[in-house]
């Protein structure tokens, strides 16, 4: 057993938000936060990085391997209410979740966000994060009083390739820090767009370490992820951005050229 920082006898607040993050092998890190503050998914990813000595926080596990419980006071009914949901890959751990959150509720299965939680995409990370596929009997509670934003390194300012025209494509590239890999992806993507798009475009690079709220808003769970914000519908590609035809198909640019 690697680490056990959980006592099922430890009382929990009457009103709180609980967030759990599992690994593909079933290890668990979670928090019980009466203040219901945000950014807990990032904190839990950082905790997994420290506990399992990972090369970087495993943001690609969010939201697929998460579960959330919210207990609040309903002023209209004057009663305490609870809502709990878990994504399909971790729905089978409902009994464990009830134990760590000291409750007995009927968990709802959260619908997978469109374009996310693809097992094939998740499995692509196994060679880089083999510890996540190894069971360590880990049940770790991250204390709420330690809830401060992670001290991430500040990368270089994001680059923006902006079009002077209001029409055209609006794209966002989500990355984990600014590195040589990020620069290579950005250069290849810029060349592809310059050569293939007949319409103007705006490409903005967003570091999820600096702007986690934007990643949550765009439902980004893995990096790199390219999101087509406009024209609608919103579409995204996560993981491998080397396939130019796949990117152009996502943008609808192949139809433009035909």
TrEMBL record:
Occurrences of domain KaiB (ranges): 172-253
GO BP terms: rhythmic process
Entries under SUPFAM superfamilies matching the protein: Thioredoxin-like
PANTHER family xrefs: CIRCADIAN CLOCK PROTEIN KAIB2 (PTHR41709:SF2), KAIB-LIKE PROTEIN 1 (PTHR41709)
Protein name: Circadian clock protein KaiB
Organism, scientific name: Myxacorys almedinensis A
């Amino acid at each position: 057993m690697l680490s056990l920082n959980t006592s099922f006898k430890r009382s929990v607040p009457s009103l709180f938000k609980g967030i759990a993050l599992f690994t593909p092998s079933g290890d668990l890190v979670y928090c019980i936060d009466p203040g219901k503050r945000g950014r807990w998914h990032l904190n839990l990813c950082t905790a997994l990085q420290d506990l399992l000595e990972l090369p970087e926080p495993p943001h690609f596990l969010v939201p697929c391997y998460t579960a959330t419980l919210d207990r609040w006071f309903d002023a209209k009914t004057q009663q305490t209410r609870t809502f709990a949901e878990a994504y399909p890959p971790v729905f089978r751990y409902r009994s464990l979740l009830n134990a760590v959150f000291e409750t007995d509720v009927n968990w709802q299965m959260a619908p997978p966000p469109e374009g996310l939680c693809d097992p094939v995409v998740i499995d692509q990370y196994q060679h880089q994060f083999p510890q996540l596929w190894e069971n360590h009997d880990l049940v770790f509670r991250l204390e709420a009083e330690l809830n401060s934003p992670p001290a991430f390194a500040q990368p270089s300012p994001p680059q923006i390739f902006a079009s002077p025209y209001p029409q055209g494509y609006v794209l966002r590239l989500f990355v984990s820090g600014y590195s040589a890999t990020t620069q290579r992806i950005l250069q290849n993507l810029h060349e592809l767009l310059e050569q293939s798009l007949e319409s103007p475009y705006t490409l903005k690079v967003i570091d999820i370490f600096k702007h986690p709220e934007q990643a949550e808003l765009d439902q980004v769970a893995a990096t790199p992820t390219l999101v087509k914000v406009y024209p609608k519908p919103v579409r995204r590609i996560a993981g491998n951005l080397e396939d130019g035809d796949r990117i152009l198909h996502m943008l609808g640019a192949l139809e433009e050229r035909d």
